[in-house]
TrEMBL record, chains A, B:
Protein name listed in UniProt: LacI family transcriptional regulator
PANTHER family noted in UniProt: LACI-RELATED TRANSCRIPTIONAL REPRESSOR, LACTOSE OPERON REPRESSOR
Keyword annotations of the record: DNA-binding, Transcription, Transcription regulation
The keyword Transcription regulation appears for this protein: yes
One MF annotation (Gene Ontology) recorded for this entry: transcription cis-regulatory region binding
DNA sequence: CTGAAAGCGCTTACAG
DNA sequence: CTGAAAGCGCTTACAG
């Protein structure tokens, strides 16, 4: 079945394509007779006409799309919420958000060329050549960064996450700290930042360097790690995130010990399960709403040609003290 | 800065736009002299040329995009994995997957018109008019459904999820069952199916109808629900999903009772936290990999004009028996 | 108030 | 082996 074009609508309603375009885009509204307008609208509906965005984009040189490029690992609840919020925020500005999962085998270039977005928001680092090529094509390129980076429009200070964990643990009297690393290699970038924050804060406070153990998401792995920490004199563990923290809690139990008496545990993210574990997990929460609004504001500013307002970066993080530490 | 076009490349390398197109698309490869080819490639690189997909799509009438439309609530780990896998699977066929979160305020029509995808995969029901309009525009429309639906390319049998939960609970001797409903209204569609499966299986086995309680993701709410179940004589609870199940476990603890001795609990999804809770959660796992491959196959088949092969639908579900029931 | 015409950037028969 | 030309569907000055 052939595509219905504006020419078909023009023919059907007995006017020119110009008039069809004017009516359908509400342009020069008053200058089209009500009668003509009716006729065009009716014809369009009858024919089931829908304009080709490819043609429209080609003509006008811009689309209404914002492309979010995600890292190649599973999103997780925080980023998930950020994307939902962002979609809502940008919809107010007539912009549609599209998300690409993982950079996969296909080069990023093919993707942004294929959608010609107004802006690309990177939740993962992409190459300088990619960024340059996009800018050359008139696309706004925004970066969300893992940490304080002057070029980033928004940064969750990952080192600060680690710092906050240590602060709480130290304030509650612990001096021998452990750090629970995730096994998934794709998390390495994040893990590194958080760990370096933990290290730095330990050093600043004159504590011993944290004892790092890999912790897989099962009881056996966690139990082994806890045994190792115990024999190193560790009394409190900061975990990469809540899931890992939950594993550590299970490991402590697996050793016949208890949280926080024998080993205190602190996570990151404040996932729903954190509230529900026994004991409830003390954790560093990230405010997804604040992140989403900051990014939305930055995107809007970039599109308006205005400089991005620097958001208060620290505000995103909040320590939630519960039973585990 | 003006866009670099193929005409610029042609000028720079002293050939026609035709030749540029042939070289860049590896068309008629052998028929272009190696020398010319070099020159064009060099010029393109020097100028930083990247073809306009809008023009290309307009010309050829097709893009390489597959659009996935998600429901307007947070994705969750299973769908998340499905999307990652799908992206990988379809990349092999030169297709890029784009995801739209939530249907939001902007009409779906604007979105698919703006990207002119080859196929749209709906993980949420969309209106018949939308579907028709897309088909008219030559887009393959695929539906993932909540349950057995002959028009859907893939269905996770949600009623079967409930059935499996009841089967296990009944087999382990329980006759008075409870069902833990999620509070989030946007989950209603899913919840309804799962509950109806639970109801049906209870009826089939001659058990009393399940006692339904709303359970929010906090201890207080869950504790109240558990109290209500206890006074109704319930000894086992099937939960909407693992998160709700974890809440129920916390609620049982909140009542000073124990799992599974006083109340058995079974969830759905097999999230990582399920393995780590105390006791570990018995749950109905959904195999995201199987789902992703089935959908990828269906998309590929639709694009080839072949009828979608009906996947074995039951295979996706697997009962994982652990400590909680 | 409405129409004829140009042009966005690309690809692909069709000629050489 | 390479080029001139048409056309994908749309919008928008520019004429009437």
């Amino acid at each position: 079945m052939p595509r219905v074009t504006s020419a078909d609508v023009a023919l059907e309603s007995g006017v020119s394509r110009t008039t069809v375009s004017y009516v359908l885009n509400d342009k020069h509204g008053a200058m089209i007779s009500a009668d003509t307008r009716e006729r065009v609208l009716a014809a369009a509906a009858r024919l089931g006409y829908s304009p080709s965005a490819a043609a429209r984009t080609l003509r006008s040189g811009r689309s209404d799309l914002v492309l979010c490029v995600l890292p190649n690992w599973t999103v997780g609840p925080v980023l998930d919420t950020v994307l939902d919020e962002l979609t809502r925020e940008l919809a107010d500005r007539q912009l549609s958000v599209l998300v690409h999962h993982g950079r996969g085998p296909r080069p990023l270039a093919e993707l942004w060329r294929a959608v010609t977005p107004r802006a690309v928001v990177g939740f993962t680092e992409f190459g300088a050549e990619d960024a340059d090529a996009m800018r050359r094509a008139g696309i706004q390129v925004l970066n969300t960064s893992l940490d304080e980076d002057p070029r980033a429009v928004f940064a969750v200070p990952q080192t600060r996450v680690g710092q906050l964990q240590v602060r709480h643990l130290a304030d509650t009297g612990h001096v021998h700290l452990g750090w629970a690393a995730p096994v998934e290699p794709r998390l390495a970038d994040f893990a590194e930042r958080r760990l370096s924050g933990v290290r730095a804060e330990c050093a600043r406070r004159g504590l011993a360097a944290p004892v790092v153990q890999d912790v897989d998401l099962d009881v056996a792995s966690a139990t082994a790690a806890v045994r190792a920490w115990r024999s190193a004199g560790v009394t409190a563990v900061a975990a990469y995130n809540d899931e890992v923290a939950l594993a550590v809690v299970a490991g402590v139990r697996g050793c016949g010990l208890s949280v926080p008496g024998d080993v205190a545990v602190i996570g990151v993210d404040d996932v729903p399960a954190a509230r529900l574990s026994d004991p409830a997990l003390t954790t560093v929460a990230q405010d997804a709403g604040v992140q989403a609004r900051a990014i939305a504001t930055a995107v809007a500013a970039a599109l308006d040609g205005a400089p991005a307002p620097a958001p208060e970066r620290a505000e995103v993080l909040r320590l939630g003290v519960r039973g585990s530490a």
